[in-house]
Every structure is written in C-alpha cells, then in structure tokens.
Write a structure and sequence with these properties.
By secondary structure, the chain is α/β, with parallel strands linked by helices. It is built from 15 helices and twelve strands. The strands form two sheets. The chain has a nine-stranded mixed β-sheet, with helices on both faces. Strands 10-12-11 form a three-stranded antiparallel β-sheet. β4, α7 and β5 form a beta-alpha-beta unit. The two termini are 38 Å apart.
C-alpha cells in the first residue's frame, strides 16, 4: 500500500472497523492488510479465518464505528493511519506501532527532533522545577518535548515547553480517548497542548484510561523520541518502563541522579547503574541528541530479538491445514518464538503467520514481547 496516496472514506471506515474488531491488535492488523490488500477484504475473511480455528467470529458493528467517528469529529480530532505520509517515521518503524492514531493540533511537531521527559507523579518540588526548566531550554533549542500528561513531572515538562519563547513545542500522548481528560486537573493543559502543540491518542474516543492502556502509551512516547530523560522515578514505575522501552528501541536513555535516601530517586539511580547516561542539565541532553546517529551511548536494553514478518507475496489465501495443525500442536502455555515455530513446523513463514492469525482471531493466542506467542490458558 502506498504511503503517499490518501485512502478512500470507505477503506478508512473498513480499517477502523477492522482494528476495533475482537482479537485484532497491531500485529494482526498489519498482517491482515498485507495478506488481503485492503481493510474491506480483511473484514470479509475474518469469519472464515476464525472458523478454521474452531470459533465463530463477529466483527465490530458498523454502528459502533459510526458512533466513534461522530465522536471523533465532535472533538475536533482526526485519524492518522499507519501508511499515511503524515505518520511519524520514528513511530512507523518501531515494533508494535499503533495502526491508527487520533490527533489534534500540529502533526508536524511529531516530525521534528523529539525528546521525552518523564518521571514521578508525586515528584518533589525541586524535580518539578528541574523538569520545567529542562523542557523550556530544550524547546528553545529546537527539541519538541514529549510526555504523557500525567501528574508531576509530565505536567511540568509540558508546561515548560509551552512557556518557551519561540519554542519547538510539545506532544502529549494520552492513554484515554482523545476526548477524555485525565487526570481531570489537567483538562486545561490538555486543551492547551491540542491548540498550541500536538495531542495524540491510540484509544477510540470515549475510552477511559485503564491500566492496560498505559504501557502502549509509554511505547508511543519512547518510539517518537531520539532519547528519553527520566527526572525522578521510584522503582517499578511507569517512567522506568518508558525508559527501558526506549533502550530496547535503540534510543538514548538518560537519567538525572538523586539522593539514595529519597525513594523517588531510586529508579533514576538504578537506571544509571544499568547503563543509562547521567545528565544534569539541558546542555548534557543536547550534547547526546544533536549528534545522535541511532547508536546510543547507553546500554539500557533487552537482548535484541529478530522479528519475522510475512512476505506480501506468500500465500494470499487462507493458509493450509497442515501448517495450522502443526503450529497448533507445537504451541502451549509457555511463550515460544515465531521463528522457532517456523523451523519446527517445516512450513513457510507466511503459512505459520496465517495459522497464528487464525488462533488469535479465535481468542486462543496470546502475543508476547519479543515476537513470542503462546496458547491462552483455558
């Protein structure tokens, strides 16, 4: 599919309906489009695909999608599809990129040099001031500041970037629908970002921010930016998840050190111990990112995993029964790499991927990080 040609309204509608249908995630969505060529054709194939895995399948209703589009238009937002020329390249090339985003504001900001600033919700006064000043200086230096509109460090970073004179701007990535303000006290800030910066959301309009939405929000933040700065964070916080995701993606991970006596500094200190770059001011961040070539100086990352993708020319039909039965027999409750399934089944990559799609649509497959899959415990 072209990345420069606009899709028709009918195809856009079909794609939204496809993504909102049960058991369709970023991986299966992209594979279905590649295999069948369009959202409409993929929707037609869903019942048979799920039926091959022994389940009846009903796609998202037309009325549900119509209601979502009406709510999106009422909020003043627009859709951004993964193969649009406006879709940020940094996000497009990352694993698990959202197939469809909604946005308000200036989409051009997502194409500028970006840096994420994240941290604790219950941040100290000193950390809030540091985040605000850091964001202001980076914005005035030409870096778009990206964060998640949470309480504490996120809010301070957004406000600092917005206060910059002739600044580059700020991007707020939220875990709710684009018409939902969370936390409630950031409603005015969220609206200001939509008017003066860029507001992005993966979830459909009207969606409340649930716990399971925040990891994908964090992945978008990490993907958009050349580097992520953690100002203050407790161990096992969402900010550390964002930082480690950035490291896995080959982005620069930076952390501001703090007192070992303050629990809010333990996460940053641990990151530095694990290989993140110690930074203390905007100059340190700019030095790392201005010459960033895709090879971070830090080493905060998991072992690299080879992802297997379907060849667009491989088996545009529904796959073969031998591959489906072989893959089904090889799978269990323990996650296994897709490459290993291809080797052990003896089937080609396209047929294995299609067999996995059948199981996923039937609600029997779980996809894990690193390109691994397992059967859902019954």
């Amino acid at each position: 599919m072209s990345t420069t040609e606009a899709i028709s309204q009918d195809e856009a509608f079909s794609r939204i309906r496809l993504l909102r249908s049960p058991h369709i995630g970023p991986v299966s969505y992209i594979q279905l489009l590649r295999r069948f060529g369009s959202g409409a054709a993929a929707l037609e194939a869903l019942p048979e695909l799920a039926g091959r895995a022994g389940r009846k399948y009903v796609a998202a209703s037309i009325g549900r999608v119509q209601d979502e589009i009406a709510a999106m238009r009422k909020s003043g937002a627009r859709y951004l599809f993964h193969d649009s020329q406006d879709y940020p390249e940094a996000l497009q090339t990352s694993d698990g990129a959202p197939p469809i985003l909604t946005w308000r504001g200036d989409i051009g900001q997502a194409h500028k040099p970006c840096v994420a600033i994240v941290g604790a919700r219950n941040a100290s006064a000193a950390a809030l001031r540091l985040a605000r000043e850091l964001a202001l200086e980076l914005s005035e230096a030409g870096f778009v500041v990206v964060s998640g509109l949470a309480r504490g460090i996120d809010g301070a970073a957004h406000r600092g970037a917005l206060a910059a004179t002739c600044g580059a701007g700020t991007v707020g990535v939220i875990a709710s629908g684009i018409d939902v303000s969370y936390p409630p006290e950031h409603a005015d800030l969220q609206e200001q970002i939509a008017l003066e910066g860029l507001l992005l959301a993966e979830q459909p309009c009207g969606t409340e921010p649930l716990a399971r939405h925040f990891p994908t929000r964090n992945r978008i933040i990490a993907s958009l930016c050349s580097g992520t700065v953690v100002v203050e964070a407790a161990p096992k916080s969402g900010s550390l998840i964002t930082a480690r995701l950035a490291g896995e993606m080959g982005r620069e991970v930076m952390a501001i050190p703090g007192s070992p006596l303050d629990p809010r500094s333990q996460g940053c200190n641990q990151l530095i111990r694990d290989g993140a770059i110690l930074v203390q001011n905007a100059g340190d961040v700019m030095e790392l990112l201005r010459d960033f070539s895709g090879r971070p100086r830090g080493v905060v990352r998991e072992p690299e995993t080879v992802w297997t993708t379907m060849d667009e020319n491989e088996g545009r039909g529904l796959g073969d029964n031998h591959a489906s039965s072989s893959v089904n027999a090889l799978l269990g409750g323990a996650p296994v790499a897709i490459d290993e399934l291809i080797r052990q089944s003896g089937a080609n990559a396209g047929d294995v991927q299609m067999a996995l799609l059948e199981l996923e649509l039937a609600g029997r497959l779980v996809r894990h990080a690193g390109g691994r899959v397992s059967l859902l415990d019954s």
